[in-house]
Write a structure and sequence with these properties.
The complex is a heterodimer of chains A (271) and B (402).
Chain A lengths: L9 H25 L15 H7 L2 H34 L6 H13 L2 H15 L5 H26 L3 H8 L4 H29 L3 H6 L7 H10 L4 H35 L3
Helix pairs in contact in A: 1-11, 2-11, 3-6, 3-8, 3-10, 4-6, 6-8, 7-8, 8-11
Chain B lengths: L39 E10 L2 E11 L4 E5 L6 H9 L6 E6 L2 E2 L10 E4 L11 H11 L4 H14 L15 H13 L5 E5 L7 H18 L2 E6 L2 H7 L2 E6 L2 E6 L1 H6 L4 H6 L4 E11 L2 E6 L3 E6 L9 E6 L5 E3 L14 E12 L3 E8 L4 E7 L14 E6 L5 E3 L2
Parallel strand pairs in B: 3-8, 3-9, 6-7, 7-8
Antiparallel strand pairs in B: 1-2, 1-4, 4-5, 9-10, 11-12, 11-14, 12-13, 14-20, 15-19, 16-17, 16-19, 17-18
Helix pairs in contact in B: 2-3, 2-4, 3-4
């Protein structure tokens, strides 16, 4: 997209269109077919909102959606809390022994295959004899998303001028108050962005959720996946369109929050 | 540097140092309180980072109402010392006494000391008003009281009408004023200024220096400024401590520092200077004759502190080296003792207020001379290639042993 010249040459335009089509054409088709009146997924039968109303009357599907929403909201909140604390400890605390190891371990889940995370958590829950369901999925998603929050918050903290907190202490704040009065307001946009990122990741996770959930508490992705195995109903298209819409909204909100955070950061930087 | 002679930092005398052959200048308002105990006493303070001693057994007394400058090249430990006074660093050894109480281990927020940071460290999410009010709120002041105090400070630093702005809507000079007002708000016993003017351009910096001095005099507060800019230190401070490698090499008034530096290093660090190395040949009637390779035999006034070595440096500031076509006018009292060096002008640097000449002596050495341009049409200006006599009196020479 970033061409060296200001003008789009024909070739650049073509490759851009090709790239975007590759990414978004399937989704566009999905969205269009969610308004399909026909019962058959592949046959166009005119515009209709029939499958949306079908979804809103599908008890099992709605339960799964509610379950997913609760898991995402709870795990994102927990992950934000823990991830922020970890980021603060890593960037503000004095250099402690094993700091590099600790930060490496914090970020390992970023690159860990989900199957391994899921399986190891399953083994842990079985060993602990924990009843699998809402709680276990929430814990699993918290471990998955915490590192993402930590990355976002830590990068924000890194760009903050450390003399700001010193100035607050100089003006009469103890270290805890200095953090609350100065640092927290400045990293808040990053924390919000981290929460939304965690929420989105939790909402669309299938692999870890299917390892760690129990009977009767399927999340939406699990529910959709099992429906699709029995044959794709146009209702699935409608659900997916709603999810795409929700996630797009969250991503836009998160990027606005990050932008706001950076704008504040610029003025915090030394001259 | 300081093996031979006991220097200032080894003996923190509460009394002022004896004047060094210089008329004591009119000092800034010095409150004549019980002058026995200084406001701030730093006693043999050591700060180590690993094996590196950033501050090395440094002692210093600062009186109430002083404007004190810590001057030194970067990495000399001056900022570390300031941060220890503010409480951001804890000394490994020694004591810091403020009003007789040891504050070395006291946390920053419990010290009656405030700091103005080099990059100002304004809170970007707070308005100018809230930045200045920040420390007052922590002190539990009533709202109406805070508002009137902030208004007073805003007027003091001439920021009227900008109270609602955020820091990123201010110019560099305005930010500097907000930072100053914020650090003054709690009426600290000592105000620490860490390179406060480094980010300003030259013109603004010079006018701000004067404002800072006036402010300090008006408030009667004790200011300690850290700077690497010797002109800035000389302009604002009533006393200057020159630091190098974690130690104070000399503590003196600006005039003493310039006219009677304690060492060759300080002489070269503070201002420009010509230096000739030589040996003491004879001494009579308060005059020393020193034979140098570069300038022949130079007659100098014998310094108060007796010279113990034979190998010394003769130092002379460029503005004390006069040029003339034929030598000094003969009605000088000690005409016979005036030092005359013959040479050729090689470089002429016109700086407006003064002109700096480089004169290549017949011995091959180069002497710098700066002359004030007191007349608009200067018939006495010299040009490159011209033969001149550079001359100076014995009293204008310094003899440095180290």
């Amino acid at each position: 997209m970033a061409s060296a010249t200001n003008k789009f040459s024909g070739f650049n335009l073509f490759s851009l269109a090709l790239g975007l089509a590759f990414l978004y054409l399937p989704i566009v088709i999905l969205v269009i077919y969610s308004f399909n009146a026909s019962r058959l997924v592949t046959v166009w039968g005119g515009w209709s909102l029939r499958w949306y109303s079908e979804f809103f009357n599908d008890r099992a599907m709605l339960d799964a959606a509610w379950m997913s929403f609760r898991v995402a909201a709870t795990s994102a909140t927990l992950a934000t809390l823990l991830g922020t604390l970890a980021a603060v400890a890593l960037s503000r605390g004095r250099r402690f022994k094993g700091r590099a190891l600790f930060s490496g371990m914090l970020y390992a889940p970023l690159v860990m295959p989900e199957v391994i995370t899921g399986l190891s958590l399953l083994l842990l829950f079985v060993a602990l004899d924990a009843e699998r369901g809402f709680r276990t999925v929430t814990v699993a998603h918290t471990t998955l998303t915490m590192c993402f929050v930590a990355v976002v918050v830590q990068s924000r903290l890194g760009s903050l001028d450390s003399s700001l907190e010193e100035a607050a202490m100089d003006l009469g704040c103890d270290p805890a108050r200095a953090f609350l009065a100065v640092t927290l307001p400045l990293i808040l946009p990053a924390i919000v962005a981290g929460w939304m990122l965690a929420f989105t990741l939790s909402l669309d996770d299938l692999v870890i959720a299917s390892f760690t959930t129990g009977p009767g508490s399927a999340t939406l992705p699990i529910r959709i996946y099992s429906e699709v195995r029995l044959g794709v109903k146009p209702e699935i298209n409608a659900i997916c369109t709603l999810i795409v819409g929700l996630i797009a909204l969250l991503i836009i909100a998160a990027s606005f929050a990050a932008k706001l955070s950076n704008a504040r950061g610029d003025s915090a930087a030394p001259l | 540097m300081a093996e031979e002679l006991p220097n200032v930092e080894a003996a923190p005398a509460p009394k002022p140092e004896p004047p060094v052959a210089i008329a004591p200048e009119a000092v800034v308002t010095e409150p004549a309180v019980a002058a026995d105990m200084p406001l701030l006493r730093i006693e043999a303070v050591v700060k180590k980072f690993g094996i590196f001693r950033a501050v090395d057994r440094l002692s210093l007394d600062i009186k109430a109402g002083e404007f004190f400058a810590l001057l030194g090249p970067s990495g000399c430990g001056k900022t570390t010392l300031l941060r220890m006074l503010a409480g951001f660093e804890t000394p490994d050894e020694g004591r810091i006494l403020l009003d007789g109480k040891d504050i070395a281990q006291v946390l920053p927020h419990q010290r009656p000391v405030n700091m103005m940071f080099q990059n100002y460290a304004l809170f970007p999410h707070l308005s100018v008003h809230d930045n200045i009010a920040f420390g007052l709120k922590r002190a539990g002041m009533a709202r109406s009281e805070i508002d009137s105090r902030v208004a007073e400070l805003v007027a003091l630093v001439k920021l009227d009408g900008l109270g609602k702005r955020k820091p990123d809507q201010l110019s560099g000079g305005q930010k500097q004023r907000v930072a100053l007002a914020r650090s003054l708000a709690r009426r600290p016993k000592v105000l620490l200024l860490d390179e406060p003017l480094a980010a300003l351009d030259k013109k603004l910096r010079e006018s701000t220096q004067l404002e800072l001095m006036e402010l300090q005099r008006r408030l009667g507060m004790t200011f300690i400024i850290v700077t690497h800019d010797q002109e800035e230190a000389m302009t604002v401070a009533s006393r200057i401590g020159v630091m190098d490698a974690g130690r104070l090499d000399q503590v003196a008034t600006p005039r003493e520092l310039y006219e009677a530096p304690a060492s060759r290093w300080i002489a070269e660090f503070v201002g420009d200077i010509n230096i000739f190395e030589g040996q003491v040949e004879s001494r009579e009637a308060g005059r020393l004759a020193i034979s140098t390779r570069d300038a022949g035999t130079v007659i100098v006034a014998e310094p108060r502190a007796p010279i113990t070595r034979t190998v010394v440096s003769v130092a002379i500031r460029p503005e004390k080296v006069k040029l003339s076509r034929r030598g000094p006018v003969s009605d000088a009292v000690n005409a016979h003792a005036i030092n005359r060096l013959e040479g050729t002008v090689t470089d002429v640097g016109y700086l407006g207020g003064l002109t700096v000449y480089k004169v290549k002596l017949d011995t091959g050495a180069v002497v710098r001379s700066s002359m004030a341009n007191t007349a608009r049409l200067d018939i006495d200006a010299y040009s490159a290639g011209q033969r001149v006599v550079a001359w100076f009196t014995p009293d204008d020479c310094l003899v440095l042993e180290q």
